[in-house]
């Protein structure tokens, strides 16, 4: 079972998110290497007899026993039998991906089959369409009926009603009926976006339309296209930008690959600047570094120090800091050369410099790390509402969160897992 553990700095938690509830909470409890389920009074409903337990709902849990996966409820009743090599909650949290005898499928949390266990690693490739592989790739529907035959060496996913397919080391494109609409002639072909696709031909990149007309000649070492249609070109270690109409935003003279955030691009031509997708200069080429803005202020580095400018490039906070993070909710993390703290837009220290790491505020809180590498969650008045005890913590769901503690007491790294409730009571012991 793969659980994504994210640092506290990335969490959006506490009452502003509406995640806490007064109903009874069921918690996986670990004692040494065995797991059970208890309530907040630590009254056990499921004895300590499992090798691992993961919550997937308020009262449903993936459990592991003797290397077999199943699903149980909070009372220990088997909901999905222990006959699977793996069960994973999908990223959307709505269904389960299961594996048995090397084949993958999907089912509801209560065990209703959604996609039969027939193929290895089916991947969503379009509406009611999955790409799967035997000795070759093909496409099936949600009932595992073959829609397009297994004859391709590799396939992408359908976008703009076309899909890149590979036969005999060359890429072409098929439509939803499997008709080859662009011959297999390219070294590689990427998915179509708004009627255009990046392809590689004779070692160079270009762009074609759905009729295989060449829109950008095969002169480039790299071409990348955003969903917005803005395109990055690379030639002889220099980069340029085109808009969605393939008109130049910049010349082919940038030193680094442009970085995008929403409608802004961070560019380097000797020094750094910020442009929008229309090619308007927001921050001119004059800084050692520049970051994307928060609360209308751009973090910029000048003469070795960081400060902030506004969208008119007026200095609003002087260049005095070793490092800064963008403003959010009226505060910004700043480093005075010894530690991180927080300042307001008037450049006043609001939370003292005392942290090894500090992140931007989100939903009233910010992730911080002390000098013993322990993480906590900081409120805007400087209170730490998570004890400096855990190295990693997941997002709170159903009133609980998974934690990780790094133990080096034996001279080796031992990562210990467990769960806590919203009051940070521990549900684990060694």
Describe the 3D structure.
The chain starts with 26 loop residues before the first strand and ends with a strand. It has no helices and 44 strands. The strands form eleven sheets. It has a seven-stranded antiparallel β-sheet with strand order 8-9-10-11-12-13-14, with no helix packed on it. With 430 residues, it is mainly beta. Mean pLDDT is 91; it is low at 1-22.
Annotate the secondary structure layout.
Blueprint: E1 27-31, E2 34-38, E3 44-50, E4 52-55, E5 60-65, E6 68-73, E7 78-84, E8 86-89, E9 96-100, E10 103-107, E11 113-126, E12 129-133, E13 137-140, E14 146-152, E15 154-155, E16 162-167, E17 170-175, E18 180-186, E19 188-189, E20 196-201, E21 204-209, E22 214-220, E23 222-225, E24 231-235, E25 238-242, E26 259-261, E27 264-269, E28 271-276, E29 281-287, E30 289-290, E31 298-302, E32 305-309, E33 315-321, E34 323-324, E35 331-335, E36 340-344, E37 349-355, E38 357-358, E39 365-369, E40 375-379, E41 392-393, E42 400-407, E43 414-421, E44 428-429
- The assigned structural class equals mainly beta
Number of strands: 44
Largest sheet: 7 strands, antiparallel
Separation, N- and C-terminal Cα atoms: 22 Å
Show unreliable segments.
1-22
Strands of the biggest beta sheet: in what spatial order?
8-9-10-11-12-13-14
Provide mean pLDDT, rounded: 91
């Amino acid at each position: 079972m793969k659980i994504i553990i994210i640092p506290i700095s990335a969490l959006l938690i506490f009452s502003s998110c509406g995640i806490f509830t007064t109903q009874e909470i069921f918690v996986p409890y670990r004692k040494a290497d065995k797991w059970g389920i208890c309530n907040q009074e630590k009254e056990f409903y499921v004895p300590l007899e499992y090798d691992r337990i993961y919550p997937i709902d308020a009262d449903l849990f993936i459990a592991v026993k003797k290397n077999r996966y199943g699903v149980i409820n909070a009372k220990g009743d088997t909901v999905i039998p222990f006959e699977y090599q793996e069960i994973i909650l999908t990223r959307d949290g709505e269904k389960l991906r299961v594996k048995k005898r090397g084949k993958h499928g999907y089912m509801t949390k209560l065990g209703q089959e959604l996609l039969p266990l027939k193929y290895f690693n089916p991947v969503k490739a379009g509406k009611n369409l999955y790409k799967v592989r035997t000795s070759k790739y093909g496409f099936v529907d949600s009932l595992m009926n073959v829609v397009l035959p297994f004859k391709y060496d590799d396939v992408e996913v359908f976008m703009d009603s076309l899909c890149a397919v590979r036969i005999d080391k060359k890429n072409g494109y098929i439509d939803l009926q499997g008709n080859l609409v662009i011959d297999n002639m390219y070294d590689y072909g990427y998915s179509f976006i708004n009627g255009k696709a990046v392809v590689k031909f004779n070692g160079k990149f270009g762009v074609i339309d759905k009729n295989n007309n060449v829109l950008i000649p095969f002169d480039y070492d790299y071409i990348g296209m955003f969903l917005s249609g803005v395109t990055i070109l690379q030639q002889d270690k220099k980069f340029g930008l085109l808009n969605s109409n393939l008109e130049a935003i910049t010349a082919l003279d940038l030193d680094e690959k442009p970085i995008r955030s929403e409608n802004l691009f961070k560019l380097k031509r000797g020094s750094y600047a910020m442009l929008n997708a229309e090619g308007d200069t927001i921050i001119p080429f004059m800084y050692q570094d520049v970051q994307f803005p928060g609360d209308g202020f751009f973090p910029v580095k000048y003469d070795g120090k960081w400060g902030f400018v506004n969208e008119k490039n007026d200095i609003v906070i002087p260049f005095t800091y070793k490092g800064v993070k963008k403003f959010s909710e009226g505060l910004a993390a700043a480093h005075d050369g010894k530690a991180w703290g927080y300042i307001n837009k008037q450049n006043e220290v609001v939370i003292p410099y005392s942290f090894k790491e500090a992140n931007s505020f989100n939903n009233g809180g910010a992730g911080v790390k002390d000098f013993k590498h322990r993480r906590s969650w900081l409120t805007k008045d400087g209170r730490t509402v998570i004890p400096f005890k855990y190295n990693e913590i997941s997002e709170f769901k159903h009133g609980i969160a998974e934690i990780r503690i790094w133990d080096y007491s034996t001279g080796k790294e031992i990562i210990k897992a467990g769960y806590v409730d919203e009051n940070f009571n521990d549900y684990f012991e060694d």
